[in-house]
Amino acid sequence: MCAAAPTDRKRAKAPRTPMPEQPAKVRVGNFGEVALGYTPDMALAEAARCLRCKKPACVAGCPVGIDIPGFIAALADGDPRRAYAVIRQTNSLPAVCGRVCPQETQCEQACILGKKHEPVAIGRLERYVADAFLADDACEELTGAPACPAGLEDVRVACIGAGPASLTVAGSLAARGIGVDVYEALHEPGGVLVYGIPEFRLPKAVVGREVAAMRDLGVRFFTNWVGGRTVTVPELLEKGYRAVFIGVGAGLPTFLNIPGENLIGVFSANEYLTRVNLGRAYAFPDWDTPVYPGKRVVVFGAGNVALDAARTAARLGAERVAIVYRRTENEMPARREEIHHAKEEGIELFCLHAPLSFTGDAQGRLVSVLLQKMRLGEPDDSGRCRPLACEGEFCELATDMAVVAVGTRANPLLPRTTPGLATNRWGYIGVDEATGETNIPNVFAGGDIVTGAATVISAMGAGRRAAATIAGRLLA
Length: 476
Ligand code: FAD
Ligand code: SF4
Hints:
Oligomer: single chain
Distance between the termini: 40 Å
Number of domains: 3
Number of helices: 20
Strand order of the largest sheet: 3-2-1-4-15
Shape: globular
Structural class: alpha/beta
CATH topology of the largest domain: FAD/NAD(P)-binding domain
Largest sheet: 5 strands, parallel
Bound molecules: flavin-adenine dinucleotide, iron/sulfur cluster
CATH architecture of the largest domain: 3-Layer(bba) Sandwich
Helix content: 25-40%
Radius of gyration: 23 Å
CATH superfamily of the largest domain: FAD/NAD(P)-binding domain
């Protein structure tokens, strides 16, 4: 099954190379990156653990099918440029994915070495390659190869939204010489990569580097531009765009719908993280975006968003931060690594509790939240144990700030202003899965606006499929 030489087998048994990190007590006082990245020696040691399997299960576990043994072999041979080119064949944002993709449930979960030993640290190696490689020009940055064709002046495509789905479409088409204009509602491109995921997990400079390479290849970004308000999809097609890609995400917050949710001090995670990240409130007063100074903070939810909000509050000076979740830690959907880091940073997990109501003072400021104690019942349709209320058992938590991170949904603005666009009953846009095309010819969609809240890599996979279809049509 595997092509490893006996000496490699010995190396494979070596423990996984740990990631250097800022110590928890230090990093909780700053917004610098938690994980510091491998040194060249660490990367070589980890790359040597790969068995170079003939039938690599890791590739099947990667949503965009990166040639994982291929890039690791190039790295082990001391050729990060070739390693980068291999990754870039299928992944447009390796420095991003190497930092935030849930490898533990994808490629690393499938890694054959992981059956008897620890799996190869594929994500850490991907990040190392992306950070180590220095492109000579924008084309090489976007493709791994210095051979982008000249732009086709009269062939332009519009993308609405500038998250990973649209950025993938833009980068792929620009590298093939097709002109792309990206229209973004916020004042900076990047989507959740800049407004949601905090600096300590994904520095804005990493996203900025990708966007800069696209600009250099002729992609035009129009910010503060709301699709469905400033201009509609039919108007874009009338203006002469040969195709329109809708990548507007699913950023409309879901609320708890309990009494007191309008009190001062209760925020949606979306508002809180956008203010801190995109508005750079973490650098107040150097940046003039103030942020609410919660001291006893409660966060509702158990995904990456909840953990990001909790860890952000801790960094902004909160004395106590608790995550309230109605199931147990085992059922938390957040990445294991993030849960581990959050606990190291002193975030409390208040499991088996659900919020019932918020209480405020005479000025309308939040002072406490009433919680219902829960227990686990039988598994539901998702396979997770159903949370059940423990009748008559309550507790009250004193708090001056609450962040609601219990999910998001589709914003109906674009579908409503695009006559005839087919959506499902939750408002997500329907597409042909193989091509990404909607029921309207030459109108494509992908990412969270099609799947509901998912992952960076799945949004990029959708962008890749749509870009391949658009390019195939326009360059035929
Ligand atoms: P988005 O990233 O949401 O981008 C959509 C863009 O469209 C936004 O910039 C938005 O402003 C813009 N837009 C919306 N409406 C309009 C309009 N009408 N006109 C113009 N522009 C518009 N995934 C992971 O894989 N790993 C993680 O660790 C992880 N952590 C996360 C942490 C947080 C806090 C959040 C919120 C999400 C996280 N995710 C994570 C999920 C991941 O970021 C998303 O699945 C992914 O970003 C979806 O990409 P997208 O391009 O579809 O949409
Ligand atoms: Fe095999 Fe794991 Fe290496 Fe993939 S990463 S080739 S599955 S040892």
